[in-house]
Amino acid sequence: MIFQEIFNNNFEIIIPEFFLTTILLILLLFGVFYKKNQNTQKILIIKNITTIIIYLLLILLILTLNITNISNNILNGVLIINNFTQFIKIILILSTIVCFLIQQKYLIQQKINSYEINILMLISLLGLMLLVSSNHFITLYLAIELQSLSFYILTSTQKKSILSIEAGLKYFILGSIASGFILFGSSIIYAITGSLNFNNIFLILSNINFLDNINILISLSYGLIFILVGILFKIGASPFHFWLPDVYEGAPNNISSFFAIVPKIAFIGILIRLFFEIFFNISYFFEIFFYIIAFLSMLIGALSSLQQKKIKRLLAYSSISHVGFILIGFTSNMLNNIPFILLYVIIYIITSINLWTSYLSLNINHKPIKYLTDLSNIYTINKLIAVIIILNIFSLAGIPPLAGFFSKLFIFFSAIKNNYFSLVFFGIIISVLSSFYYLKIIKIIYFEKILRKMYISQITKIQSIILLINTQFIIFLFVFPNIILVNLNKIYLYLLI
């Protein structure tokens, strides 16, 4: 009876989370009881398990898509399930499936036999799914910790690499501090409102006249800033970005691709819920805060990228710059900014998938490439890969008529509506500046003298299909941008219900 009251007859809408948890338990038990045999080829076992996980994730995707009985609150208001959270979860699951697909060949080539990597990636997915549906600060904190702990270990999976161990240790220390910030900010908000439930906090804040209670506003602002700092750390916004380049460089390439592709949509999703929903009544006072963070992220990301010689560090700083563009959408508390934010994140994810898929297929003497100069003879070996890399680089730079141009254009429109012309002007300058280091890559691919012979491993059919579909989307988005925006508008409307 108590169990039934807790679930409030809505158990079926959290079946995806329970299904994923069950998968994890089965895989963990298999890892514990499986007796290693010296005569068994471990790499074949890992390949088979990865394939099984992909099929299980497809089932998870189907379960998520089939949820039609949407309920606002479950588990006594600890979690919230609506079309907005379901949309973010679908993107998360699809991104994770793609990451498993593009890494299979890489794992075999590099003879990475760690059984635990797949489990840790699934644990992080579970944490991100719970994060998106969090309706309570304790749930939010625990979900972030579940995701973060798996990421700390994944970063350090290269036991023989000093860079990997150093990056994992640095990420763990700084990540723990960021989690502490979230916990401390939550305690401040609890001290003021007497609740950690998002719905209760929203109702309490709706009944407060902040002009007559300026002290409450200041205290709430302190608490919310601590929480925002912790979340902005997780997405690598400046000046909380110092861990990101080291983690990208130190982690194995398949793990770096997972870091770059999957988590951002979840943390941006919870930021949208906090800024545009729960704390909407005081979000106006944080527009300058997001203005400064967006400015610093774009500036530091672009300037630091100009100095990079390693591919993964360049992608890391490029990510920081793009986070700055995403945060422009938070400089105004107008709800119609949400589709623009989501569109930018989705286009960035698709572009990242293309670049990382291409990167994972590049080798020199059967070892992953590291430096930009290693790209010098791609065009002579595989013209298609070279063209795909260039198209996606142009998209990141915001060159029309590619998808990246429209994502930046709509984000700039959101800032113009709030009269932040200076931020738009600065964003355009940063886009031009970023073109320099993107053009540097094109120069290396087409015109640089070949220094070392490169070997491009045969791309699998699945990788080819992923590259083909995503590249077509990047090229032809200008034909139907309104259709996508209309559907994204429907998603954000669920925040109003």
Automatic annotation (TrEMBL):
GO molecular function: NADH dehydrogenase (ubiquinone) activity
Subcellular location: Membrane
All residue ranges annotated as the NADH:quinone oxidoreductase/Mrp antiporter transmembrane domain in the record: 134-434
Classification via InterPro entries: NADH-Q_OxRdtase_suN/2, ND/Mrp_TM
Zinc is among the record's keywords: no
Domain of life (superkingdom): Eukaryota
Keywords: Membrane, Mitochondrion, Transmembrane, Transmembrane helix
Topology with respect to the bilayer: Multi-pass membrane protein
GO BP term (any one): ATP synthesis coupled electron transport
UniProt keyword Mitochondrion, yes or no: yes
GO cellular component labels: membrane
Bilayer-crossing regions: 13-33, 45-67, 79-102, 114-132, 138-157, 169-193, 213-233, 254-276, 282-302, 314-335, 341-360, 381-400, 420-441, 462-485
Signal peptide: none
PANTHER family xrefs: NADH DEHYDROGENASE (PTHR22773)
Protein name per its UniProtKB record: NADH dehydrogenase subunit 2
Lineage: Eukaryota, Sar, Stramenopiles, Oomycota, Peronosporomycetes
Gene: nad2
